[in-house]
Amino acid sequence: MQVFISHSSKDTPIARKLTQRLSEAGLRVWMPENEILPGDNWAQKMGQALEESELMVVLISPHAFESEWLKEEIQYALTADQYKGRLIPIFLDPKSEISSDVPWILRKLNPIEWKGREEDWQQVIEKVRSLAE
Fold first, then answer.
1. pLDDT above 90 covers what percent of the chain?
2. Which one of 3.40.50.720, 3.40.50.300, 3.40.50.10140, 3.50.50.100 gives the CATH number of domain 2-31+43-132?
3. Scanning 19, 36, 90, 94, which has the fewest C-beta atoms within 10 Å of its C-beta?
4. Phi/psi-derived region of residue 58, left when phi > 0, alpha when psi is between -120 and 50, beta in every other case
5. pLDDT averaged over the chain?
6. Alpha-carbon torsion 109, 110, 112, 118, what sign?
């Protein structure tokens, strides 16, 4: 199963670390900067990755919803059959959860509150593994 990491470009350092952690745990992760080469059709590669992935982790921060791509990726995951029950919101900042920009449905999907502790990484890995089985 391929995991798609949806994030704002401002959250790329955390997305990289999450990609590394999930990969080390034996999961296949799609991260744009690892998969899209200069000259590639960016939109086409993103669309293909969304179609081929079956689980999405969304990194939600105070500035996440400044990204139109992130909003579209979430909309796709909420309506695509392969993501049913496999959308994991991760709130990177307590202020994110109460932001009016965050769609209500993401608060209802049993989100993870990430504080950067080792146990937070483990919680994400365990949740992804449980949904990937």
1. 63
2. 3.40.50.10140
3. 94
4. beta
5. 89
6. negative
Return the DSSP state at 38: T
CA distance 128 to 75: 20
- pLDDT for position 98: 58
Boundaries of every domain in the chain:
2-31+43-132
Mean pLDDT for the stretch of residues 68-94: 92
- The side-by-side arrangement of strands in the sheet containing 55-60 is 28-30, 2-6, 55-60, 87-91, 112-113
Above 90 in pLDDT, residue 6? yes
Q: How sure is the predictor about 27, in pLDDT bands with cuts at 50, 70 and 90?
A: very high
Contact between 21 and 36 (Cβ < 8 Å) = no
Cβ atoms of residues 115 and 92 within 8 Å = no
Is 93 buried (19+), middle (13-18) or exposed (0-12) by CB count in 10 A? middle
pLDDT of residue 28: 94
